[in-house]
Amino acid sequence: MGMDLVICHDTEDVYTPAEAGMDEVPKRLAEIYTEEGIPAHFMVIGDRARLLKERGREDVIAAMRRHSIGVHTLHDAQPYDAVEAASREWDEALAIVREMQREAYRAVAESFDCEPVCLSAHALNSAPQMNIVARELGLPFLYGYAAAPPLYNVSRYCGTLNFPYFTRQLPVPAPYFEGFDDALSCEPEFEAHLERFERHVQACLSVGQPLLLLHPCHPFKIYSLDWVDFYLSPNGVLIPPDEWPKRPGPGRRSRGEVELALQNFRRLVRYIKRHPQLNPITIPEAVRKYGSVPRKIDWLALMAGAQRVCAERQVSVGGQFSPAELVLGWAQSLLTFAHEGQLPRYVERHNDCLGPVEDPLITPEEPGKINSHALVALGDALLSHAREKGHLPANVALPGGRLVGLGSLHYALAQAYLAVSREGQLPDAVVLERFPRQPEIGLEIGRQYADLAESVLVRPNLDVGRLYRWGKLQAWTLAPAWCGA
Known about the structure:
Layout: E1 3-11, H1 24-36, E2 41-44, H2 46-54, H3 58-65, E3 68-71, H4 81-86, H5 90-112, E4 119-120, H6 128-136, E5 141-144, E6 155-157, E7 160-164, E8 176-177, H7 187-206, E9 211-214, H8 255-274, E10 278-280, H9 283-290, E11 296-298, H10 299-312, H11 323-340, E12 346-348, E13 368-371, H12 372-389, E14 395-397, E15 403-405, H13 406-423, E16 429-432, H14 440-450, H15 465-473, E17 479-480
Parallel strand pairs: 1-2, 1-9, 1-10, 2-3, 4-5, 5-7, 8-9
Antiparallel strand pairs: 6-7, 6-17, 11-12, 13-16, 14-15
Helix pairs in contact: 1-3, 1-8, 2-5, 5-6, 10-13, 11-12, 11-13, 12-13, 14-15
């Protein structure tokens, strides 16, 4: 049994001058893939795309365009989308991220005269709003932090397909591999890392990973000793381009090291080509394979989801549908039952509905029993808020104004749905209980967004509280994408 392989290169260098001749490197990488018949992807920073166009490097653009082109944010330095979002409330943050991501999309699309196949995060520059903009553009997102257990592979998050990247350890072999950047120019390290790659492939296969995202190298690391980002906006301070030559730079490899790196890169590509268990595919092919989700949720999926929630006593991530889709499905089904006396066999799937943008209460302001009429009314309020705002409410109000957190309502609706499916009638009462405000995996997702605060490319004391909160709460939209493949 084999594993799909998506190969990506983040193409970012706006630092190295044209006269250094290093614009040739992404061209040569693309030509090697073409000659070996392996599909690859180049994730291009908007400013880098414009720079290639301004330099008249149509030959580089043409070579890269024989493969798939993606968008790798607008800037290789500040301002970052995530930094801009972190200081704003949700709607304003979404607006500015949308503006920056769409400008990046235009820069890449116009420079390469093609339609990019995805958006992607860059150097910890990631916010959930970027996934939302990808959804609006009808594109998947690469290197997002959201991934559903147990395999933590390609998943749906904020309504779009996410190919995950991780800053933390997983309980299974990660469906992502990198690390050839500095190994390609050093023969012993290349040989050792190639062996690590093979061990990782076998480990992924052993647990049934369906897809592996491989980042062989950043093109500029073929010739650059250090990361050029560090010389563009250290500590979040943007250095003007005319100051770059006057300051210490990243340093460059020798011509011999560059040629050795390119030779070893071809060896890596041929290794992949000959590997009997790796199936290189394009992102559009992966979207067709993993991105299909039914437009409706049937009653068996709603029942199975409710059983998981009641058994685990948490906001459960599992199966083909997200917690947001399920809770809206239960609410709609119970509302229909209250009016018509039977559960619908199907309900519409609310793929565009996001998770809450503020923390729900964990404990209801008025714990205790409510009758079924009140529960159906709360479900109706949930549906109305989702239709009007496009995201789940953090809390809903009981008669008299007391608030019930989304998690508590989610649990009550799951219990009621199971009762109706078993007994054919609504329960006399349900208990509003203390319940988690998001899926457990959301905490880890939020922490990865908060890692931006430790980046050497942002100002000290950056408040990432909003990124943490939004990241964990949007786990309500999380679902594994490999289930239906």
